[in-house]
């Protein structure tokens, strides 16, 4: 009885290590509400029947396809921005993921100070401000005699440069979990090194490769800084830049509808990628230890 009363007292409850973290829960809820409420309001007004973005006038799909001029379905400028976003996402992903996979395999197989330095340079891209990289690439494209200029080509090169670290890190983490024993066993059975890599290692890397693909695509379609600095005209402006350029020019809720479609695409990519990754790694205990082991090897190197 005394023990129960002691645990119910305020002082004992505060010292109880198994108490519910109510303060942390409260902070988390406040953060989520503060972060998501503006997004939900913007999405809500994309279904507004009137032109106002602050006064609700009824539910409608007018700004998605109902309006014959200003809706996303009929506005040519919004079509261009949406197609440019999808083009950058697909092209950048198709280039970045294979390069990142090859880079990760090369760094994993190559020993010495030079690959360790290359690995550190790759990780630096996580902390280099994106605006710094964007300005540097802008100076390179506009100041040097290069066969490319501002526009889609420059945007793809900038995005690949910025995104290549993501597949490299994920694939290296997967390589750290599976080790070399499967590939060595295949070579002991008579397979050539390239065949062992293609038939054994690459199939085991597929969960990391797929996760990299989803991550890169979702990040590219949301990018703003690089694509804005490296765009040439309105034809090469993706959705993020189009929203920025028209947000202060008395826009209609069609802009909210365009942003909602972009948000939906990113969410679908992330959710589908997560579900497929969980299915691909079901029963794989090594997948849970990949990042930890990879981080330890990177620090030791």
From TrEMBL:
Belongs to the binding-protein-dependent transport system permease family. CysTW subfamily. Coiled coil: none annotated. It comes from the Bacteria. Signal peptide: none annotated. GO terms for cellular component: plasma membrane. One of its GO terms (biological process) is transmembrane transport. The chain crosses the membrane at residues 23-47, 88-107, 119-146, 152-171, 202-221, 254-277. Keywords: Cell membrane, Membrane, Transmembrane, Transmembrane helix, Transport. The keyword Cell membrane applies. Its main location: membrane. It comes from Mycolicibacterium smegmatis (strain ATCC 700084 / mc(2)155). Pfam families: BPD_transp_1. This is Polyamine ABC-transporter, inner membrane subunit.
